[in-house]
């Protein structure tokens, strides 16, 4: 079965959003074009409580971009984003959500972030995506969305860890690039883990 995973194509990650990914809006048209080619389309959705501990606003004296320890894990502090029930957490308005078969919400535990669509950042809890795919006999997935160097990367790496064959659709992914070169480093890390990169597959 050919499966497409759309990672976090939400308003807050688009230009003008609380945590905008440069050119993030460009992935919407790619997603809409590709969805009909797949038998199954799954979308992940960042869905944070308002007091999520990854938000800099929850830590007096700390700023966005700082790295602190939260519940024993290193945590980059982000602007408040994708808060449950807010417009910023909704899927991009231009995204054809009718083409999405299943939605996985992540980042719902206030104490731990969840970049991956499969697990939280410490693999304490699963989101249910792995079981959902396994229950349908899925063995291979294509991954795209926002952002290449965070949620897309960790979703792809966890998919490999679960034994899935994984391909990154670079055409449909954009990165945050907190540090220049982060996206290239993320793609290299994915390749090293066994993720196939769109455009680099041997024919």
Walk me through the structure:
It is a single chain. The protein is α/β, with parallel strands linked by helices and 203 residues long. It has one domain (3-47, 90-197): Isochorismatase-like (Rossmann fold, 3-Layer(aba) Sandwich), CATH 3.40.50.850. Helix content is 21%, strand content 22%. The chain has a 6-stranded parallel beta sheet with strand order 5-2-1-6-7-8. The two termini are 20 Å apart.
Sequence of strands across the biggest β-sheet: 5-2-1-6-7-8
CATH topology: Rossmann fold
- Total number of β-strand segments? 8
Number of helices: 4
Percent helix range: 10-25%
- The whole-number mean of residue pLDDT values reads 96
Q: Which blocks of ≥5 consecutive residues have pLDDT under 50? A: none
CATH class membership:
Alpha Beta
What is the architecture at the second tier of CATH? 3-Layer(aba) Sandwich
Largest sheet: 6 strands, parallel
N-to-C span: 20 Å
Name the structural class.
Answer: alpha/beta
- The 3D shape can be described as globular
- Strand-residue proportion: 15-25%
Structural domain count:
1
**Helix and strand pattern:** EHEEEEHEHEHE
CATH 4th-level superfamily: Isochorismatase-like
How would you describe this structure in keywords?
single chain; alpha/beta; Rossmann fold; 6-stranded parallel sheet; 21% helix; globular
